[in-house]
Amino acid sequence: MIPKRKDDGNQHRELVKYLTRRLALAAIAGLFVFGLLELALSDLARSNAQNRTQGDVNRFRAALQQVLSRDVQLIRGMVGYVRAQPNLTVEEFRLIASDILEGAPDHLKNIALARDLVISHIYPEEGNETALGLDYRSQPQQWPAVERAIQEQRIIVAGPIDLVQGGVGLVARVPITLRAEDRSDRPLWGVVSSVLDFPALLDHTGYGSLSADYRIALVGRDGDPTSDEIIWGDPDIRSLDPVTLDVVIPTGSWRILAAPREGWPTFITYLPLLLPILVILLLIYAIWELSRFRLIEERINANKEVLAALQRAEEASAAKSTFLAVMSHELRTPLNAIIGFSELLENSPRDSRIWERAPEYVSDIRQSGRFLLSIIDDILDLSRIESGRRTATIEHADVVPLILEAAKRMRVEFETHGIALAVSAESEEMIARGDRRAIIQILNNLLTNALKYAGPSANVTIAAAWTDTDRIEIIVSDNGPGIPEEKLGEIMKPFVQLSSSYARTAGGVGLGLTICLSLARMMDGTFTIDSTVGVGTKVRLTVPASPNA
């Protein structure tokens, strides 16, 4: 309120002072608000640039994962053929290798066999003559990856490495062991390998157009997710604060580091544009002070909403990228196996020796189909639960027959893997208020996890007991390797797996425990996990006991 004065001159001077003070404060406040707005807009520009970079690099990553997964699976057919014909001739090898490579992309250079770890067969021979007779044990750059493939009995993708026939390539190798009655004592025949021209592979998946706009590097020698070695690209990329995305390859993962070639957006001043607006606002403020304050408050709130919406969009984008990264591998792996074996049988003459292995190939196709179906079932189950289309059928259920049924169904698989499975119950009859189908599904998921992760010679126990709070507790425990403490808070989230390499070996997309937790909540139950590394894991499911029990 403007103070009143008897002297008009003094009153005028007081009014000028009052308005001057108010306008000065308003100018300072306005400059301060616009400074904050400039900072927010600069941050927004950087965030948008990072989102664009992630989107562009993610498309390259998806193409790279797809092509690698497809190319590596091509050599699986050769493994089965060599097991059936360990003394195959060069001509026989040339025929089967030409069938496998028919229609393959140009970056897939060759397929080779190394009997007794010395390259004895290679197709095509033209351009690869220098590789014939190569003894892997005499190659310090290649031997560690070959030795690892033999020890772990699985595909290992090594590289990029300098090839003896020239160029830089990735080498996918699979050990070949001959059949024997004792599975643990199968003799090693040698190694089958395929060479991928690494620069050509990158160009095939869009690296050339991407590198025109971004400085890029690949990290992770031989697919080791713990490696920090830059294996391709800009050696100074880490100084540019790059975005990072994981590339899932059949035996591990790489990381892509990327940053714009022109650098990230820096602080941008909008003062020349905002100053006229500030002058107008100051004039309006001199007459309508409260209106100006309201306008600034509304703008600040709108800016906060923009930043909050941007954060939600980034979280949604990260969740989508995680889902696509996991599913692009887990769906393509069984599909590639199905398509690869089917095409091998379809393109082979009926009198070919490949057809002698047809039952085994058909079995592999069936197993891949079942694995694919289990993934889709898990996704549909989780979708139905989250959308509310699956509800619990609460009834009086005796949990003892349910755990016996679950153990009976899985016992043969446990015995096959050398894992002891035991069942115990505190009473012969333990009546719970729950959904029978949900309890069985939870038990099946837990036993499947124990089968995957407990390890050979482990002991797994299913126990049922009463608690002090009129509830029934079902415990599935094992003395396996256990789960690190830092992972316990994450493993029940969708698509979270214990570790990338181990999870790929065991299979699955990381939905089993998420489904178990949701089913337990549907029955007004609880689902918890306790684990100690080197000691074992206990998973507890509690459901309400029937009041008549």
Can you put this structure into words, describing what you see?
- The protein is of the alpha+beta class.
- Among the domains are: 74-203, Beta-Lactamase (2-Layer Sandwich), CATH 3.30.450.350; 323-387, Helix Hairpins, CATH 1.10.287; 395-544, Histidine kinase-like ATPase, C-terminal domain (Heat Shock Protein 90, 2-Layer Sandwich), CATH 3.30.565.
- The protein is 50% helix and 21% strand.
- It is built from 14 helices and 16 strands.
- The protein has helices at residues 8-73, 76-84, 90-101, 143-152, 198-204, 207-211, 271-287, 289-347, 358-387, 399-416, 436-453, 485-488, 500-506, 512-522, and strands spanning 108-115, 118-123, 156-162, 168-177, 188-197, 214-219, 230-233, 243-249, 252-260, 395-398, 420-425, 431-434, 459-466, 471-478, 526-532, 536-544.
- The strands form four sheets. It has a five-stranded antiparallel sheet, sandwiched between helices.
- A hairpin with a 5-residue loop joins strand 3 and strand 4.
- The longest helix has 66 residues, at 8-73.
- The relative contact order is 0.09.
